[in-house]
Amino acid sequence: MSTLTLSRSTFRSLRVQPPSSSVRFYSQPVPLPLPRSVDHSRPRESSAAEVVWSLEQEGGDDRVLSFKDRKILLNGVELSPTHLRDHCRCSECFHPVTHQRLLDTYAIPKDIHPTRMGLKEGGLEVVWSTSHTSFYSNHLLKKLSPPTQPIPLISPTKILWTPSTSLTTFPNSLPASSLTSSPSALLQALRTIDSQGVLFLTGVDATTEATEAVCRILGRGKLRNTHYDEFWDFTADMKMGDLAYSNEPLRPHTDTTYFSSPCGLQIFHLLSHPSPPGTGGHTLLVDGFSCASQLRSAHPVSYQILRDTKRQAHAAGSEGFLYRTEKGWGVFEEGEEGRLESVRWNGEDRSVFSGGSVEEVERWYEAVRDWEGILRKKENEKWVKLTGGVVCVIDNHRVMHGRSAFTGERRMCGAYIDRDEWRSHLAVLEKEERRGLKGVDELDY
Ligand SMILES: [Fe+2]
Ligand SMILES: [Zn+2]
């Protein structure tokens, strides 16, 4: 629960600037310097005095909000008035049902500024120089404000695999039957994929029908339709012109790097591989986020080169299909705040690229050597022998997969789910959980 407190002891504990004669203190949480009731028709200019509030944010994140000389500051960092005005969530500015912006951003005056501010339950009310009144919940303020600490490359929500992480006993497993038992069980499954990059669903009949049913539950009915079709069922018969359809070993890679948006989840199920006479065919899984983090620590320049150098990829082995990304992509894709969002790596599918200077090209190959060297470290390789009955789900934007060579008839089936679809599915279930816990929907989009 967010609280708004204002007292001298709070300032001391938060190490806020020592009181000066221009700072006014109040012993109660009160909306100041505004009058409690806001007169929309005649907004009054506030005094130039600095007013400081401490905001104890959700999750125990203490922040200090201050208002001085018409400026709004969070932890001493000024917030852009245009940015704040653009994110007003009142029903005039933001459609309460469609959650789309109604406000015409272009119409925000360049010199917009707050004329009055006050704390209200759960957030901040601002009266703008245009007479419009906006309310910003603490949650929204937190989303709008710049990070207070350096953003780590890997989100704290991700659990990186370590040398002692063992997947051989399927620790990340759940009974597939739990997926339909309750929304919270389904949420747990999607959260496991999100945090660990892999999930094994047990107790699935070794049939295409049972596997497809599991895939559709995760994808909320939707599977990604590609040149392999929505659902694939294959043996090493080279029916499709791709090494996946051979019995060759495959080095760790992410799938469909030749699409502008590679598939989000890859789901596969070994239907049969009688052994003997069949041999080999072990599945290799590598945590791309852990390896990227290791690369950045050990070889920061190589990390940067692979992130920033764009390479195209293609799929040209199947009659009637010629996929090639319109533009190149780096191996690592970071979000706005510099957090790793995606690993895209498949050496087999990498296309021709025009070279730069010898030094540049050689340096790129050196970065690849550093990267592949980390991928091939024994402690980063997790080998799993899949069996019928266990469906393996991996986050294709994080976890790389490969396999050892094999003999004998090995029949696999599975499907892809779009990244946007499974992320949406996870977000919806999380929103429903929040609503159940707090009774509110936080408008952070
Ligand atoms: Fe693959
Ligand atoms: Zn508004």
Features:
six-stranded mixed sheet, 24% strand, binds zinc ion, binds fe (ii) ion, 9 helices, 445 residues, Double-stranded beta-helix, alpha+beta, disordered N terminus, 2 domains, NE0471 N-terminal domain-like
Number of strands: 25
Low-confidence stretches: 1-48
Domains (count)? 2
Mean pLDDT across residues? 84
Helical coverage, percent range = 10-25%
What is the end-to-end distance?
Answer: 21 Å
CATH classification, class level of the largest domain: Alpha Beta
Which class best fits the helix and strand makeup? alpha+beta
Q: What's the tally of helices?
A: 9
Compute the CA-based radius of gyration: 27 Å
Q: Could you name the CATH topology of the largest domain?
A: Double-stranded beta-helix
CATH homologous superfamily title of the largest domain: Clavaminate synthase-like
What composes the largest sheet?
Answer: 6 strands, mixed
Tertiary shape: globular
The proportion of strand residues reads 15-25%
Task: Catalogue the ligands.
Answer: fe (ii) ion, zinc ion
- For the record, the CATH architecture of the largest domain stands as 4-Layer Sandwich
